[in-house]
Write a structure and sequence with these properties.
- The protein is of the alpha+beta class.
- A hairpin with a 3-residue loop joins strand 17 and strand 18.
- It binds one RNA strand through helix 7, strand 7, strand 11, helix 11 and helix 20.
RNA sequence: GGGCUAGUGGCGGAAUGGCAGACGCGAGCGACUUAAAAUCGCUUGAGGAAACUCGUGUGGGUUCGACUCCCACCUGGCCCACCA
């Protein structure tokens, strides 16, 4: 291979650094030796090092490399620390892109997916990671999705799966359901530009809300605070009360209208009542004279896109529907309105409006000239309903509330109101969650089938376990609209009822791919096991995952679903732990010109060219050198130029080590020089190990570069040092510390320097503080906090003597010029600050 | 609107409250070469001949001492977004 960067060999007898040759050589040797496989029977302690598996889009880009290199560096480090490291990889293989390829290019989804996997697997192998390919898991294979279906049945048995109506994106022109990704920002269909609207469909849900409180616990896990906070906000636990109101419909019947509020202490402030436009009682409570207006409003709300409806800063809208509720607290008639700021999906879809103390209600009241009544008054000033221009939230003391007047705004007051509500039989304390049940139905072809059948006689019936898997047909034809072809395959749809044996229809929806990724980490433990989803003893051996690494964007979806799954399986007795991932780390994202890389945007950076030119070792180290691993980076046109620096570094390591080999071992060298070598060696061990263990790969590398530069300098100054034992050990240290980052060159040099076993099973060097200690330390001398001088002093000099030495230094003495210092600050080994 | 996070040379970035700019890229000069590339050496925050002065988004504060801690603001990124 010819590149302009590569140095010529300056001596014929020395081996030349040819990265690609070395890399393919060692990758082959490692693979044949099974070096990357984590055996199930092994006496070392286990370490399960997991990375979020990729979607097989077809091309491995530099972002994948970044992510997987960091994980591999950490895995290799743990292996060198003596762990039996299991580091598997697989493919999250169901999903929309395969279906789009099938529609647009007429290639079968399965074929497309598997050829992408083959390509990505071979690309991945070039990075020289310790991926345990014997454990590979592909979620679209029947031996995997059989168990995805099985989990569905188990959740169904436990009452955690249920069917309900939910809105989907419906394109009236294509006559099909669209995924959120297929709806453009302006609310139109990506295929035909028709306006998409919401339509209710019967779909399957998982009752994740039943686990909301448990999901807030985080038992025995060490996760980033940020991620837990995101999940907590997502789950959104709110304590409050349910209060029952009653209203009379135009049919003279009385209807219950419960509401949920977090502010039961403001019930006396209610001046109107609002229902979500979709609320089922709207029809009964709308008086005939309001019918037309109300219907028009509901129509309008339905036609709005999510983006429109969710925008906070739009003006409030709504319609009075003609009926009233009676406030059980004040006995007043309170008008009922509908408005889209009340959501059917949260609480009861109805609220009591207290405009004086809720900003949204306040805006609504002002817009429609509805009354406002203060039930809290600030302690330090007067406020009037007419002049206030925003709601008063959490301030002051209770007023206008009968026996409660005078109470302060606090939890105790809220509790007294709830007690009162419960005592009067008007309602009860209640906790609500923002999180909704998990909708897993997808009106898509390329996913795991939902193992359910519909019988005219027996209704909904689960497919019996022994009939699993419900196989997904592989040769299918798509309608031009992109509709799921499953509906039109009679052999798939028509089946028999497991209960009565009569004719029945299969469910044609498939499962959300998050379902597949909610348990893949369990499958890695026994990927070939066919007696169940996993082999219980191997689960006990490997789980929970010790280290999980992946993007922060999965905080509220995948990471929550996987925890829910694990907890549900624990409760069914399949697992003896509740949290799947003990430690979590989010790597940063590599952007291209400040934008996310994606195949669809066409802005991906391919690693292949760089790997061919500089070798995988250089690309790995280069990516890790860009910055802190959790920060990611912005890839611009000049970024690539930096790889030359890493390549030079590796070449210099190569030259340093191969130069030494020419020297005879066992020569003697001045003990002072030997001590200097040891000092540099042990200082490096300390900082580099510390950095590697805390994922600071960029500073670990700069530490190694400084080490390399230091050793080169020593060899130049005193060539004889290269014959010493200390020198050989110093080079061993260099190679061992560099091995996790650049595994091939270090393995090659390890062999060249006469070692007979792989460098990657070496144990890490141990830091010796005594060897690292300096005789002299450089002391910084400041006057009034400003740097004035640097003085070398013996490391063991006492404080008084240090101060005297400093004060008698000519520059300092001149600056002080006879004045008496007010104070002298002494930080041992670091600095002296003289305050004048 | 809320939450989180970041802001340091021409660039990527480094600094348990203690020498700002480590390490690397790029650039400049030099050596080697007929020449170029590669390699090696030196220089490289700004101003200044130098002594020295200024300098980590802006403005305050705490401290002997602040890139680092506190307050306010400005700008970017990410997540959530009318959740009663």
């Amino acid at each position: 291979m010819d590149t302009q960067i590569k140095p010529e060999a300056n001596r014929a007898e020395k081996p030349v650094y040819r990265p690609t040759d070395i890399e393919s050589k060692w990758q082959k040797i490692w693979e044949e030796a099974g070096a990357n496989h984590a055996p199930d029977d092994d006496s070392r302690p286990k370490f399960y090092n997991l990375v979020m598996f990729p979607y097989p889009s077809g091309d491995l880009h530099i972002g994948h490399w970044y992510n997987y290199t960091g994980v591999d560096v950490f895995g290799r480090l743990m292996r060198m620390k003596g762990y039996n490291v299991m580091q598997p990889l697989g493919f999250d293989a169901f999903g929309l892109p395969a279906e789009n390829a099938a529609i647009k290019r007429g290639v079968q989804a399965r074929k497309w997916t598997l050829s992408n996997i083959a390509k990505m697997r071979s690309q991945l192998k070039t990075m020289g990671g310790i991926w345990d390919w014997q454990r590979e898991v592909i979620t679209c294979n029947p031996d995997y999705y059989k168990w995805t279906e099985w989990f569905f049945l188990k959740l169904y048995e436990k009452g955690l799966a249920y069917r309900a109506k939910a809105p989907v994106n419906w394109c009236p022109s294509c006559q099909t359901v669209l995924a959120n990704e297929q709806v453009l920002a302006d609310g139109t269909c990506e295929r035909c530009s028709t306006l998409v609207y919401k339509r209710d469909l019967e779909q399957w849900f998982f009752r994740i809300t039943a686990y909301a409180d448990r999901l807030l616990e985080y038992k025995d896990v060490s996760w980033p605070e940020k991620t837990m906070l995101m999940q907590r906000n997502w789950i959104g636990r709110s304590e409050g009360a349910r209060v029952n109101f009653k209203a009379t419909g135009w049919d003279s019947q009385e209807y219950d209208l419960p509401i949920f509020t977090t502010r039961p202490d403001t019930v006396y402030g209610i001046t109107f009542f609002v229902l979500a436009p979709e609320h089922p009682l709207v029809e009964k409570l709308t008086t005939p004279d309001k019918q037309a207006e109300v219907n028009a409003y509901i129509e309008k709300a339905r036609g709005e896109t999510d983006i429109e409806r969710q925008s906070t800063d739009r003006e409030k809208s709504g319609v009075f529907i003609g009926s009233y509720v009676i406030s059980p607290f004040t006995g007043e008639k309170v008008p009922i309105w509908i408005s889209d700021y009340v959501l059917m999906g949260y609480g009861t879809g109805a609220i009591m409006a207290v405009p004086a103390h809720d900003q949204r209600d306040f805006e609504f009241a002002r817009k429609f000239n509805l009354p406002i009544r203060l039930v809290y008054m600030p302690d330090d000033r007067d406020l009037s309903e007419d002049s206030m221009n925003e709601a008063l939230v959490h301030e002051g003391h209770v007023v206008n509330s009968g026996a409660f007047n005078g109470l302060p705004d606090n939890q105790e007051t809220v509790k007294q109101f709830i007690d009162h509500i419960e005592h009067e039989g008007l309602g009860n304390a209640e906790v609500n969650y923002r999180v909704r049940d998990w909708l897993i139905s997808r009106q898509r072809y390329w996913g795991a089938p939902i193992p359910m059948v519909y019988c005219d006689i027996d209704g909904i019936q689960p497919v019996p376990e022994e009939q699993l898997p419900v196989l997904l047909p592989e040769e299918v034809e798509f309608k031009p609209t992109g509709e799921s072809p499953l509906k039109y395959i009679p052999e798939f749809v028509n089946t028999t009822c497991p209960k009565c044996g009569g004719p029945a229809r299969r469910e044609t929806d498939t499962m959300d791919t998050f379902m597949c990724s909610s348990w893949y980490f369990l499958r890695y433990c026994s990927p070939l096991f066919d007696g169940g989803a996993f082999e219980p003893n191997l689960i006990k051996k490997w789980m929970p995952v010790d280290q999980y690494t992946g993007g922060a964007e999965h905080a509220t979806m995948h990471l929550l679903y996987a925890r829910f799954f694990t907890m549900a399986l624990h409760d069914m007795g399949y697992l003896n732990f509740e949290e799947p991932f003990t430690r979590l780390f989010h790597q940063g994202t590599i952007l291209r010109d400040s934008k996310k890389m994606s195949k669809s945007k066409g802005n991906v950076v391919a690693p292949d060219v760089l790997v061919n030119q500089y070798g995988a070792d250089a690309v790995r180290a280069f990516l890790m050198f860009l910055g802190p691993f959790d920060k990611g980076g912005n890839w611009t046109d000049t970024t690539e130029m930096q790889i030359g620096g890493i390549y030079r570094f590796l070449s210099r390591v190569w030259a340093l080590v191969t130069d030494t080999v020419a020297f005879d071992k066992g020569g003697s060298v001045d003990s002072k020089i030997e001590a200097a070598v040891r000092r540099l060696q042990h200082k490096t061990i300390r900082r580099v190990l510390q950095d590697l263990e805390s994922w600071q790969f960029n500073t670990a590398l700069s530490g190694l570069m400084e080490y390399n530069n230091g050793l080169i300098k020593m060899a130049q100054d005193t060539p004889a040092v290269q014959a010493s034992v200390a020198w050989r050990e110093a080079l061993d240290t260099m190679l061992v510390l560099l091995a996790p980052l650049s595994p091939h060159i270090t393995e090659e040099l390890w062999q060249i320097t006469g070692h007979e076993t792989s460098i990657h099973i070496e144990t890490l060097p141990i830091y010796d503080a005594a060897l690292a200690a300096d005789d002299l330390v450089t002391l910084v001398v400041q006057i009034n906090g400003k740097l004035r001088e640097r003085i070398d002093i013996p490391a063991d000099m006492g404080e008084e003597e240090v101060k005297q030495t400093v004060l008698s230094a000519p520059k300092i003495a001149a600056a002080v010029s006879g004045a008496t210092p007010k104070k002298i600050i002494y930080v041992p080994g670091k600095l002296v600050n003289i305050v004048l």
